[in-house]
Specification:
This protein has about 290 residues and is mainly α. Helices cover about 75% and strands about 0% of the residues.
Length: about 290
Amino acid sequence: MTTVEGIVRGKLTAGQRVLRVVNSSIVNVVLMIVALFWLIPTIGLFLTSLRSGGDSASSGWWTVFTKPAELTIQNYANLLQNPTITGSFWNTIVITVPATVLVVLVGSMAAYAFAWMTFPGRDWFLIVVIVLLAVPIQVALIPLARLFGALGIFGSVVGVILFHVAFGLPFAIFLLRNFFAQLPGELLEAARIDGAGEWRIFFQVVLPLGLPAIASLAIFQFLWTWNDMLVALIFTNSESQPLTVAIQSQLRQFGSNIDVLSSGAFLSMIVPLIVFFAFQRYFVQALLAGSQK
């Protein structure tokens, strides 16, 4: 066995030797170092959120490695007692969760209709959905602000939710329609032969099989809505503003509010990360679905 391996190794070309070096553990170490550099801002934000405002103003966050006594959770305790931050945090949840659920539910039903149902004008409606993907948000800000003002929902949470649902549906329909169209048609026909209606096929067959794509869509929509500031800055008031707007308003007093800003920003960042890692398995399955077909 050793002789065979020696012969194989002797026949390796220069390119193959380079590839072997590339695949070695040295590259893994280099990638870990690169990843560490990418994480430095996040680490710095986290450590800053654990320091007092005075310490952050007088020295950099890296001094905690020589002075670990500077670390404290008092910033987060104060954050929970700040009505502006806590109120905006709950506003963010109230905006993000319904906007995500509605986009996933309505988008998946529309995608199923476009993929497996026949109705007049289906292809034209699909073209309209694809065209809507190219419409920038900025184009609709003023018209929708006027419309929401006439309806009496401008400055409320409802207006922001409707805005995110409207602009999230084209992408949701396009993404899920392409995924649902790859499902085996024989399975759906077998369900129809057994007497299942379209609603039963959708909820008991299509949704379980399309769970990876639906989870991916939920991650995208959640992140877009949670991290949005432009729409929230225009369509909310002081009572309905989300966390991004509340943190932005604190920037006017950056020097005196750095403890609030750092802890609030880290709180705003950690929630999407938790959601992403919770659905990471389905996200990877959706990315690999096309290559497995």
